[in-house]
Amino acid sequence: MNATLEAIIHILSFSAARYFLIAGIPFAVFYIAFPSRMNRMKIQQRLASKKDFLREIWYSMQSTLVFTLISVAILATPLRRYTLVYDHISDFPLWYLGATVFIGLIIHDTYFYWMHRLLHHDKLFKLTHLVHHRSTNPSPWTSYSFHLLEAIAEGLILVILSCVMPMHPLAILLFTIAAFIINVYGHLGYELMPRSFRHSWLFEVLNSSVYHNVHHSKFKGNYGLYFRIWDRVMGTEHPDYVKEYDKIQAQRFGTASLPESGL
How many domains does the chain have? Predict the structure, then answer.
């Protein structure tokens, strides 16, 4: 079998399994096994339909194929020589492997913020991003539910990362897994952050599931992927975010756990 085709089959199989595992387990827990027990954590009380879930899975499989082809291009074709991907972990200190994953998330957040804002331009939204926003009440299956053109734009982050800093294939793999886990949390539809998060400095920096859920329900604001930083710097954070976050946490823990300015 042709080596490139074999790589496509292997990476596609892994990526599809990763999607159904990482998105499927929380879906099974929150939407099938214990929906009533988890109800206090639910961000939007209405439920998406089975038709919505099937549509999201269909588009997610298209996106998975796109991401696979991009991964194969930079890892298993002659295009690799134009990247900074390195073969031996020993080529750099071991800590560097983890550092590239973390730096990759920071770069990705910046790339995603500006790409996301561009996709909300009137002329591009209906052409591409509307597919993702058909999920006004997102679920874990929404995480990769993109129009084909948006999937290509999303996947280009792998090209950027592999060309701007040396990365081992394992670091690229760990980056994609970490990014997808955070993506699933952002689309979960339930808030998982502990009570203490609201009182910590991390609240001022990190996104929550409520953060991205507000974006899906309001169709504007909260364009960041992992962090609140770009939205706050650019003035695009939705003004209802903190109020909505406090509302959900009060639903979970009671109003006594919230700052006096919260509700």
Answer: 1
Q: Rounded to an integer, what distance in angstroms lies between the CA atom of residue 34 and that of residue 43?
A: 15
**Burial of 184 per CB tally in 10 Å (0-12, 13-18, 19+):** buried
Average pLDDT of the residues in 244-259: 83
Q: Which residue's entry shows tokens 């919505």? A: 52
Question: For position 263, what pLDDT does the model report?
Answer: 38
CA atoms of 213 and 31, how far apart (whole Å): 16
Residue 45: in which H helix or E strand, if any? none
CB neighbour list of residue 5: distance below 8 Å, 6 or more residues apart = none
**What pTM did the predictor assign?**
0.93
Residue 259's pLDDT is: 58
Tokens of 5: 């085709």
Tell whether 34 is covered by a domain: yes
CB 216 within 8 A of CB 129: no
Q: Kindly state whether residue 228 falls inside one of the protein's structural domains.
A: no
CB of 211 closer than 8 Å to CB of 226: no
pLDDT value for 48: 86
Q: What angle do CA 191, 126, 230 make, to 5 degrees?
A: 45
Question: Is 255 part of any domain?
Answer: no
Q: What is the mean pLDDT of the chain?
A: 95
In Å, what is the CA distance from 48 to each residue of 53, 58, 154? 8, 16, 25
Domain range for 98 is 3-192
Cα 243 from Cα 166, distance rounded (Å) = 42
What pLDDT, on a 0 to 100 scale, did the predictor assign at position 105? Answer: 98
Q: Are 113 and 225 in contact (CB under 8 A)?
A: yes
